[in-house]
Amino acid sequence: PLPQFDCHCALMSLPLLLRTRLDSIPSPPHYLQSTADKRQEWAPALGARTGPRIGVVWSSTSDFDGDLLRSVALSDFLRALPVGGVDIVCLQKELKPGDRAALATRPDIRFLGDAITDFTDTAALIDCVDLVVSTCTSVPHLAGAMGKPTWILQPYTPDWRWLMSRDDSPWYPGVKLYRQPRLDDWESVFARVRQDLEALAAGHSRE
User: Fold this and answer.
1) How far does Cα 158 stand from its chain's mean position?
2) Which of 4, 58, 181, 194 meets the CB 3.0–4.6 Å disulfide criterion with 77?
3) Cα R_g (the chain), whole angstroms
4) Which residues contact 94 (CB under 8 A, 6 or more apart)?
């Protein structure tokens, strides 16, 4: 039951009440962090780095009506991931049945989901990678709140929080958006992400 109160404002009306505009949205570098003990638990499981360490998420297990627009099959998402040059860690706890066969074709992708218990584990894993690459699920929101560089693959009609016609986010300074230029055009998105990951790997190898 609601307690007694003198005033009430619906949560989604607060930006209007507070006169929030795009240029006044608070966007600190980060406002969440993982715990040291969790990071220490996960570091040994990831082993030695073979290149830039990339955390990936391609789908949600949510029953949200619009999930088909934002989630992709791993067999398709693999086209965004180079073979070699990067160290890939799956940040998903659960896999859809059709994704297990695709995962078996890429032994270079570490799947740790069976050992992930909650978001404190996910946060620690995010802190153990250099970059998060994800479709629009809960994980990139966590990564963005932690200040981790995050690339988010967007459908043509995105969630309202990602706005339109921009490749950054006023809420998360470390986020870069890869938008579909046309409805259902994941191919061009995968191609751009792969190109940028290959460039990242090449830059790392020269260091």
Assistant:
1) 14
2) 58
3) 18
4) 61, 113
